[in-house]
Design brief:
- The protein has 387 residues and is an all-alpha fold.
- It folds into two domains: 10-183, Growth Hormone, Chain: A (Up-down Bundle), CATH 1.20.1250; 200-380, Growth Hormone, Chain: A (Up-down Bundle).
- 74% of the residues lie in helices and 0% in strands.
Length: 387
């Protein structure tokens, strides 16, 4: 193995590990939604407002962080973001009231937003294998997503909320590694070159906006099913650990789906891949939302696998459209879509209070399939195989 190749593999391992931890922290509140809701006397809509805060500061500000990243040292920004998220999410178990919890979630989520646009660009070193690189990067995030419910419910179940600070330790260590490994290596645009926002709305950007709309609907589906998993689990009598395990299966199978998607996107038509992902996952989501028997959790897990196949494609395609502002468009596709989806949790929460969580998620499962409609606005030549 050459020296350059060895360095490349070390960097890949670093970015996958960092992304796993960042998404771990971003998800740590989700399996504990019912715990905090009951402990602080919140309604479903009220706890959904906390989810909206996560969306605003953890996702919607990612494009702004992307602009910053395109003009500064990406490695330092990503390292600082990981450290902030590790510390502040680690402290949520010590929050004495809703206001303190909201503040901790807000600052921790801002750290997540600082990390993602920079890290997404630092990950891609071989332009010819962009889809595969993004698949590995998103797989790392998926590992973190899957581990968060399992770890959070075990710590809280056995030690109590106050011991949740233990999760901050690995993030602090990896943040230091990230800082040391990427110093002077991730400089963004040359000085004086500002991104022109109107370029996002120029002629010829319709395919990108269609992909964004699709990403938004898909994000609503994933966010809603993940966020309300603990509430639905309590209704079904699964308990904290049982609900966390179901969510871990869903997110863990998403890891496999993201990795497979990055591999397949280099070898097949991306529009077909994304469309099949939406249409095949929708009935699986519906089964999980409608049944509490033996098929429920397996259907949920398979929905996570199938739906995640399309995840790497949106980001990789957007970076290809705007290579000079890769951090910004990564922020739009990875951040803005997830942020708006978190805001829409309020609407899902209102539907859940009116008709029940299961009925609300049945409606979301229909939307999950309808996301494929936006592919009609993506030309076949634009969505062809990557690489």
């Amino acid at each position: 193995m050459s020296r350059g190749t060895g360095k490349g593999w070390r960097r890949t391992l670093l970015m996958v590990t960092s992304h796993a931890l960042s998404d771990f922290y971003a998800t740590i509140f989700t399996p504990l939604v019912e715990t905090f809701r009951a402990g602080m006397g919140l309604s479903v809509v009220g706890v959904s407002a906390l989810g909206a805060l996560l969306g605003i500061f953890g996702s919607m500000v990612q494009p702004l962080m992307g602009v910053w990243s395109d003009r500064t040292d990406r490695g330092r920004l990503a390292a600082a973001g990981l450290l902030v998220s590790a510390v502040f999410f680690g402290l949520i178990g010590l929050a004495p009231n809703v206001a303190a919890l909201a503040l901790l979630l807000t600052v921790g989520a801002t750290g997540v937003a600082m990390f993602h646009p920079s890290a997404a660009v630092l990950t891609v070193r071989d332009e010819g294998r962009r889809n595969m690189a993004m698949g590995l990067f998103m797989t790392g995030g998926g590992v973190g997503l899957a581990l968060a419910p399992w770890v959070a419910t075990r710590i809280v179940g056995r030690l109590g909320l106050a011991w949740l600070w233990l999760i901050a330790l690995p993030g602090a260590g990896v943040a230091a590694w990230l800082y040391l490994d990427t110093r002077g290596d991730g400089r963004g645009m040359a000085a004086g070159r500002w991104f022109r926002w109107r370029a996002l709305f120029a002629a010829g950007t319709g395919a990108a906006w269609a992909l964004f709309a699709m990403a938004l609907v898909r994000s609503v589906a994933i966010t809603a099913f993940a966020f309300y998993a603990s509430v639905l689990g309590k209704e079904r009598g699964w308990g904290l650990a049982g609900s966390g395990d179901a969510l871990s299966w869903f997110l863990g199978c998403g890891v496999v789906g993201s990795l497979a998607g990055g591999h397949l996107a280099d070898r097949t038509d991306r529009r077909l891949l994304m469309g099949a992902s939406c249409l095949l996952a929708a009935p699986l989501f519906f089964v999980y939302a409608s049944t509490r028997g033996v098929l429920s959790v397996p259907a949920f897990a398979m929905a996570g696998l199938v739906y995640s196949v399309a995840n790497p494609v949106n980001v990789a395609f957007a970076q290809e459209l705007y290579p000079q502002n890769a951090s910004l468009v990564s922020g739009v596709m990875m951040g803005m879509a997830w942020g708006v989806a978190n805001l829409l949790l309020m609407a899902v929460g209102a539907a859940a209070e009116a008709w029940g969580v299961g009925r609300a998620l049945q409606g979301v499962s229909v939307l999950a399939g309808l996301a494929a409609v936006f592919l009609a606005f993506v030309p076949a030549r634009a969505a062809g195989a990557g690489g």
